[in-house]
Amino acid sequence: MELELREVTKKFGDKVALDRFSFTFRTGIYGILGANGAGKSTMMNLITDNLRRDGGSITYDGVEIKKLGADFRRVLGYMTQQQGLYEGMTAESFLVYMARLKEIPRKAVPGEIRRVLEMSNLADVSHKKVGEFSGGMKQRVLLAQALLGDPRVMILDEPTAGLDPKERARLRDHIYRRAQDRIVLLATHIVSDIEAIADCILLMKEGRLLRAGTAAQLIASLPADWKPVLHAPSLEDVYLYYLGDDSHE
């Protein structure tokens, strides 16, 4: 299983949002780390075909996703950054609605809804309206809809945005436990969200890929004369060095 981006470019007027981005994703969790405006969401919207790219190719197992069309959408699960929920719906009715949009066969919908509700620890509150949920529970509803159809590629855009530390930790745990044998892209600007669960971390700035590697590899890349003296270097130090206002590209 392989998702490859090659020389992918996206412009909004004179602004280059993604600049000849190339990377090959295989099974595992990939943390996409960068400040707001780094190009994380643009890249994900290009993969989900919500935006039209200006150059480059995106292939899944060697086939251009535009050629795959609906076949690629069936293996894709997308959790958006915004909590775009119909708050008057119950969790179950919202998931039924999303299952229909994903064209899951009608006979399979009830079992599929039960499966994702249980996976997201929402089965006991499935009859309650989403508007009554906490921020963390709403995010779990969004994660549940991304799991509909058992997708092989999961795109998670700022999944913990706006959550308190406890809810962030809970959602990270849900993502980690549901990510096995999948390609998972988790975009964030919160270092702690990916340090513990990502198999590989991509550093993005101004639409470009600066570096990629494990947390240990990125920490080891820090120059000796920059590493902090009061504590062991961490991924947060990597973020500050490569992506901060006074970064060293």
UniProtKB/TrEMBL annotation:
Record flagged with keyword Nucleotide-binding: yes
Pfam families: ABC_tran
Highest rank taxon of the organism: Bacteria
PROSITE patterns membership: ABC_TRANSPORTER_1, ABC_TRANSPORTER_2
Keyword ATP-binding on entry: yes
Keywords: ATP-binding, Nucleotide-binding, Transport
Domain ABC transporter: 3-231
An example Gene Ontology molecular-function term: ATP binding
Family: Belongs to the ABC transporter superfamily.
Protein's name in the database: ATP-binding cassette domain-containing protein
Origin species: Candidatus Faecousia excrementigallinarum
Lineage, top ranks: Bacteria, Bacillati, Bacillota, Clostridia, Eubacteriales
